[in-house]
Amino acid sequence: MKKTVLVLLLAVFIAMGAFAQEGAMEGMSFGVGVYFDGSYGNGLKIDGKNILGNSEKLETTNDNISIGGFIFFDVKYAEISIGLAYGEIRPKIDGSDKFGDYKIGYSEGMFGALLDVFALALFGVAEMDIWQLNFSILGKYPLKLGPLALYPLVGMDYNRIIAGTMRLGGEKVEFEGKKPTGDGSTLGEEEVEKGEWYEKEVSAYSQFGILAGVGLDISFGKKMYLRVQGLYNLRLPNEFQTTVAKEVWNNKAKPNLGHGPRIKVGVGFNL
Q1: Are 37 and 66 in contact (CB under 8 A)?
Q2: Can you give the residue range of the structural domain that contains 24?
Q3: Which of 245, 195, 247, 243 is nearest to 60 (CA)?
Q4: pTM score, whole prediction
Q5: pLDDT tens digits, residue range 197-247?
Q6: What are φ and ψ of residue 174, in 5° steps?
Q7: Higher pLDDT, 186 or 220
Q8: Whether 150 contacts 142, CB under 8 Å
Q9: Is-contact 45 59, C-beta < 8 A?
Q10: Helices of type H across the chain
Q11: Total structural domains within the chain
Q12: pLDDT confidence bin for 29, thresholds 50/70/90
Protein backbone atom coordinates (compact mmCIF):
# COMPACT_ATOMS: atom_id res chain seq x y z
CA MET A 1 0.00 0.00 0.00
CA LYS A 2 2.78 2.45 0.94
CA LYS A 3 4.64 1.70 -2.29
CA THR A 4 1.48 2.31 -4.29
CA VAL A 5 0.88 5.68 -2.61
CA LEU A 6 4.48 6.72 -3.27
CA VAL A 7 4.21 5.79 -6.94
CA LEU A 8 0.97 7.74 -7.31
CA LEU A 9 2.41 10.79 -5.55
CA LEU A 10 5.47 10.67 -7.80
CA ALA A 11 3.25 10.51 -10.88
CA VAL A 12 1.22 13.49 -9.65
CA PHE A 13 4.37 15.53 -9.01
CA ILE A 14 5.65 14.73 -12.49
CA ALA A 15 2.32 15.81 -13.96
CA MET A 16 2.35 19.02 -11.90
CA GLY A 17 5.84 19.73 -13.20
CA ALA A 18 4.57 19.33 -16.75
CA PHE A 19 1.66 21.65 -16.02
CA ALA A 20 4.03 24.31 -14.73
CA GLN A 21 5.88 24.57 -18.04
CA GLU A 22 5.31 27.69 -20.09
CA GLY A 23 2.04 27.47 -22.00
CA ALA A 24 0.89 24.32 -20.29
CA MET A 25 -1.62 26.13 -18.08
CA GLU A 26 -3.60 27.31 -21.10
CA GLY A 27 -7.16 26.02 -21.29
CA MET A 28 -7.44 24.90 -17.67
CA SER A 29 -10.74 23.14 -16.95
CA PHE A 30 -12.44 20.47 -14.87
CA GLY A 31 -15.38 18.14 -15.37
CA VAL A 32 -17.32 14.99 -14.61
CA GLY A 33 -18.35 11.99 -16.65
CA VAL A 34 -19.09 8.28 -16.95
CA TYR A 35 -16.97 5.50 -18.36
CA PHE A 36 -17.06 1.89 -19.51
CA ASP A 37 -13.99 -0.27 -18.96
CA GLY A 38 -13.39 -3.74 -20.36
CA SER A 39 -10.33 -5.82 -19.54
CA TYR A 40 -9.84 -9.30 -20.98
CA GLY A 41 -7.13 -11.83 -20.20
CA ASN A 42 -5.12 -11.15 -17.03
CA GLY A 43 -4.69 -14.83 -16.20
CA LEU A 44 -1.99 -17.47 -16.37
CA LYS A 45 -0.49 -19.64 -19.10
CA ILE A 46 0.26 -23.02 -17.57
CA ASP A 47 1.89 -26.17 -18.87
CA GLY A 48 -1.01 -28.61 -18.44
CA LYS A 49 1.18 -31.68 -18.03
CA ASN A 50 1.98 -30.54 -14.50
CA ILE A 51 -1.54 -31.45 -13.33
CA LEU A 52 -3.18 -33.40 -16.16
CA GLY A 53 -0.43 -35.87 -16.95
CA ASN A 54 -0.20 -34.88 -20.62
CA SER A 55 1.20 -32.09 -22.75
CA GLU A 56 -2.01 -30.07 -22.85
CA LYS A 57 -1.75 -26.36 -22.15
CA LEU A 58 -4.04 -24.43 -19.83
CA GLU A 59 -4.85 -20.75 -19.94
CA THR A 60 -6.87 -18.89 -17.35
CA THR A 61 -8.51 -15.49 -17.68
CA ASN A 62 -10.09 -12.95 -15.32
CA ASP A 63 -12.27 -10.75 -17.55
CA ASN A 64 -13.34 -7.51 -15.86
CA ILE A 65 -16.31 -5.46 -17.12
CA SER A 66 -16.84 -2.19 -15.22
CA ILE A 67 -19.07 0.89 -15.37
CA GLY A 68 -18.52 4.01 -13.28
CA GLY A 69 -18.15 7.75 -12.99
CA PHE A 70 -15.12 10.04 -12.86
CA ILE A 71 -13.96 13.58 -12.24
CA PHE A 72 -11.11 15.16 -14.17
CA PHE A 73 -8.77 18.14 -14.12
CA ASP A 74 -7.45 19.27 -17.48
CA VAL A 75 -4.86 21.62 -18.89
CA LYS A 76 -3.70 22.06 -22.46
CA TYR A 77 -1.40 19.06 -22.64
CA ALA A 78 -2.53 16.79 -19.81
CA GLU A 79 -5.49 15.33 -17.92
CA ILE A 80 -5.70 13.79 -14.45
CA SER A 81 -8.83 11.83 -13.52
CA ILE A 82 -10.16 9.83 -10.58
CA GLY A 83 -12.97 7.33 -11.07
CA LEU A 84 -15.15 5.00 -9.02
CA ALA A 85 -16.62 1.95 -10.74
CA TYR A 86 -18.51 -1.26 -10.10
CA GLY A 87 -17.17 -4.27 -11.95
CA GLU A 88 -17.71 -7.98 -12.51
CA ILE A 89 -14.77 -10.38 -12.83
CA ARG A 90 -15.76 -13.46 -14.79
CA PRO A 91 -13.04 -16.15 -14.87
CA LYS A 92 -12.46 -19.03 -17.26
CA ILE A 93 -10.13 -22.02 -17.47
CA ASP A 94 -9.51 -22.82 -21.15
CA GLY A 95 -7.64 -25.64 -22.83
CA SER A 96 -8.98 -28.72 -21.07
CA ASP A 97 -12.14 -30.83 -20.94
CA LYS A 98 -11.01 -32.50 -17.73
CA PHE A 99 -13.19 -30.24 -15.60
CA GLY A 100 -16.51 -31.45 -17.02
CA ASP A 101 -19.48 -29.20 -16.22
CA TYR A 102 -17.71 -27.38 -13.39
CA LYS A 103 -18.31 -23.62 -13.58
CA ILE A 104 -16.31 -21.40 -11.24
CA GLY A 105 -18.49 -19.96 -8.47
CA TYR A 106 -21.69 -21.85 -9.36
CA SER A 107 -21.15 -25.42 -8.19
CA GLU A 108 -23.30 -25.36 -5.07
CA GLY A 109 -22.54 -26.70 -1.61
CA MET A 110 -19.43 -27.36 0.38
CA PHE A 111 -17.84 -29.43 -2.40
CA GLY A 112 -18.42 -26.63 -4.89
CA ALA A 113 -16.86 -24.13 -2.48
CA LEU A 114 -13.81 -26.36 -2.09
CA LEU A 115 -13.46 -26.57 -5.87
CA ASP A 116 -13.65 -22.77 -6.06
CA VAL A 117 -10.96 -22.38 -3.42
CA PHE A 118 -8.86 -24.91 -5.33
CA ALA A 119 -9.32 -22.90 -8.55
CA LEU A 120 -8.30 -19.69 -6.75
CA ALA A 121 -5.26 -21.19 -5.04
CA LEU A 122 -3.99 -23.13 -8.06
CA PHE A 123 -5.04 -20.93 -11.00
CA GLY A 124 -5.64 -17.51 -9.41
CA VAL A 125 -9.19 -17.25 -10.78
CA ALA A 126 -12.44 -16.45 -8.97
CA GLU A 127 -15.90 -15.10 -9.70
CA MET A 128 -16.09 -11.62 -8.12
CA ASP A 129 -18.13 -8.43 -7.96
CA ILE A 130 -15.90 -5.50 -7.06
CA TRP A 131 -15.73 -1.78 -6.34
CA GLN A 132 -12.62 -0.05 -7.64
CA LEU A 133 -10.92 3.33 -7.64
CA ASN A 134 -9.14 4.37 -10.82
CA PHE A 135 -6.39 6.98 -11.07
CA SER A 136 -5.14 8.01 -14.50
CA ILE A 137 -2.71 10.54 -15.95
CA LEU A 138 -2.88 11.21 -19.69
CA GLY A 139 -0.77 13.37 -21.95
CA LYS A 140 -2.41 14.90 -25.03
CA TYR A 141 -1.66 17.17 -27.98
CA PRO A 142 -4.84 18.96 -29.13
CA LEU A 143 -5.50 20.05 -32.70
CA LYS A 144 -8.12 22.83 -32.86
CA LEU A 145 -10.70 22.64 -35.64
CA GLY A 146 -13.12 25.48 -34.93
CA PRO A 147 -15.32 24.36 -32.00
CA LEU A 148 -13.66 20.93 -32.06
CA ALA A 149 -10.41 19.78 -30.49
CA LEU A 150 -9.02 16.42 -31.61
CA TYR A 151 -6.06 14.91 -29.77
CA PRO A 152 -4.04 11.71 -29.31
CA LEU A 153 -3.75 10.36 -25.76
CA VAL A 154 -1.11 8.32 -23.98
CA GLY A 155 -0.55 7.70 -20.28
CA MET A 156 -0.86 5.34 -17.35
CA ASP A 157 -3.42 4.36 -14.75
CA TYR A 158 -3.78 2.48 -11.49
CA ASN A 159 -6.91 0.45 -10.77
CA ARG A 160 -7.26 -0.22 -7.02
CA ILE A 161 -9.79 -2.78 -5.80
CA ILE A 162 -11.33 -1.49 -2.55
CA ALA A 163 -14.26 -3.82 -1.79
CA GLY A 164 -16.42 -6.58 -3.20
CA THR A 165 -17.74 -10.11 -2.96
CA MET A 166 -16.50 -13.50 -4.16
CA ARG A 167 -18.76 -16.37 -5.19
CA LEU A 168 -17.97 -19.71 -3.54
CA GLY A 169 -20.13 -22.77 -3.89
CA GLY A 170 -22.98 -20.75 -5.35
CA GLU A 171 -22.93 -18.24 -2.45
CA LYS A 172 -21.32 -14.84 -2.07
CA VAL A 173 -18.84 -13.95 0.67
CA GLU A 174 -17.70 -10.44 1.51
CA PHE A 175 -14.20 -9.08 1.11
CA GLU A 176 -13.12 -7.17 4.17
CA GLY A 177 -9.96 -5.68 2.71
CA LYS A 178 -7.72 -7.20 5.37
CA LYS A 179 -5.85 -10.42 5.96
CA PRO A 180 -8.05 -13.01 7.70
CA THR A 181 -7.11 -15.24 10.59
CA GLY A 182 -7.49 -18.51 8.70
CA ASP A 183 -4.70 -19.81 6.50
CA GLY A 184 -6.82 -22.06 4.30
CA SER A 185 -4.99 -25.22 5.30
CA THR A 186 -7.90 -26.58 7.38
CA LEU A 187 -10.86 -25.27 5.46
CA GLY A 188 -14.19 -25.74 7.21
CA GLU A 189 -17.71 -24.67 6.30
CA GLU A 190 -17.65 -21.78 8.76
CA GLU A 191 -14.42 -20.46 7.30
CA VAL A 192 -15.86 -20.60 3.79
CA GLU A 193 -18.93 -18.62 4.86
CA LYS A 194 -16.80 -15.95 6.51
CA GLY A 195 -14.24 -15.82 3.73
CA GLU A 196 -11.48 -16.54 6.24
CA TRP A 197 -9.64 -18.82 3.79
CA TYR A 198 -8.65 -15.78 1.74
CA GLU A 199 -4.96 -15.19 2.30
CA LYS A 200 -4.48 -12.01 0.32
CA GLU A 201 -5.91 -8.57 0.81
CA VAL A 202 -8.50 -7.61 -1.78
CA SER A 203 -6.03 -4.97 -2.99
CA ALA A 204 -3.85 -7.81 -4.32
CA TYR A 205 -6.09 -7.71 -7.41
CA SER A 206 -5.17 -4.05 -8.06
CA GLN A 207 -3.02 -3.32 -11.10
CA PHE A 208 -1.26 -0.72 -13.20
CA GLY A 209 -2.05 -0.13 -16.85
CA ILE A 210 -0.81 1.69 -19.95
CA LEU A 211 -3.34 3.72 -21.93
CA ALA A 212 -3.37 5.03 -25.51
CA GLY A 213 -6.14 6.40 -27.71
CA VAL A 214 -7.83 9.51 -29.05
CA GLY A 215 -10.13 12.18 -27.66
CA LEU A 216 -12.55 14.76 -29.00
CA ASP A 217 -13.80 17.92 -27.27
CA ILE A 218 -16.82 19.77 -28.66
CA SER A 219 -17.17 23.33 -27.34
CA PHE A 220 -20.55 24.85 -26.48
CA GLY A 221 -19.69 28.50 -26.02
CA LYS A 222 -16.69 29.61 -24.00
CA LYS A 223 -17.49 27.88 -20.72
CA MET A 224 -18.58 24.32 -21.46
CA TYR A 225 -17.60 21.40 -23.68
CA LEU A 226 -18.47 17.76 -24.31
CA ARG A 227 -15.57 15.30 -24.02
CA VAL A 228 -15.47 11.86 -25.67
CA GLN A 229 -12.43 9.60 -25.38
CA GLY A 230 -11.68 6.17 -26.77
CA LEU A 231 -8.73 4.38 -25.18
CA TYR A 232 -7.12 0.97 -25.22
CA ASN A 233 -5.79 -0.29 -21.91
CA LEU A 234 -2.89 -2.71 -21.47
CA ARG A 235 -3.12 -4.01 -17.89
CA LEU A 236 -0.09 -5.43 -16.14
CA PRO A 237 -0.36 -8.61 -14.02
CA ASN A 238 -1.58 -8.01 -10.48
CA GLU A 239 0.10 -9.09 -7.25
CA PHE A 240 -2.12 -12.14 -6.79
CA GLN A 241 -1.35 -13.54 -10.24
CA THR A 242 2.40 -13.05 -9.93
CA THR A 243 2.31 -14.67 -6.47
CA VAL A 244 0.46 -17.75 -7.78
CA ALA A 245 2.87 -18.05 -10.74
CA LYS A 246 5.90 -17.82 -8.48
CA GLU A 247 4.88 -19.66 -5.31
CA VAL A 248 2.43 -22.27 -6.63
CA TRP A 249 3.94 -23.01 -10.03
CA ASN A 250 7.56 -22.16 -9.21
CA ASN A 251 7.66 -19.71 -12.14
CA LYS A 252 6.55 -22.42 -14.63
CA ALA A 253 3.34 -20.47 -15.19
CA LYS A 254 3.44 -17.03 -16.81
CA PRO A 255 0.98 -14.21 -16.04
CA ASN A 256 -0.88 -12.79 -19.04
CA LEU A 257 -1.36 -9.13 -19.77
CA GLY A 258 -4.92 -7.83 -19.68
CA HIS A 259 -6.22 -5.65 -22.48
CA GLY A 260 -9.42 -3.97 -23.57
CA PRO A 261 -11.25 -0.75 -24.41
CA ARG A 262 -12.14 2.17 -22.19
CA ILE A 263 -14.81 4.63 -23.34
CA LYS A 264 -15.20 7.92 -21.45
CA VAL A 265 -17.89 10.58 -21.93
CA GLY A 266 -17.94 13.72 -19.85
CA VAL A 267 -18.81 17.40 -19.58
CA GLY A 268 -16.05 19.94 -18.93
CA PHE A 269 -16.13 23.50 -17.66
CA ASN A 270 -13.45 26.05 -18.57
CA LEU A 271 -11.98 28.14 -15.77
Answers
A1: yes
A2: 2-270
A3: 245
A4: 0.76
A5: 344 567 788 899 999 999 999 999 889 999 999 999 999 988 888 888 887
A6: -85, 140
A7: 220
A8: yes
A9: yes
A10: 2-19, 49-52, 109-123, 189-194, 239-243
A11: 1
A12: very high
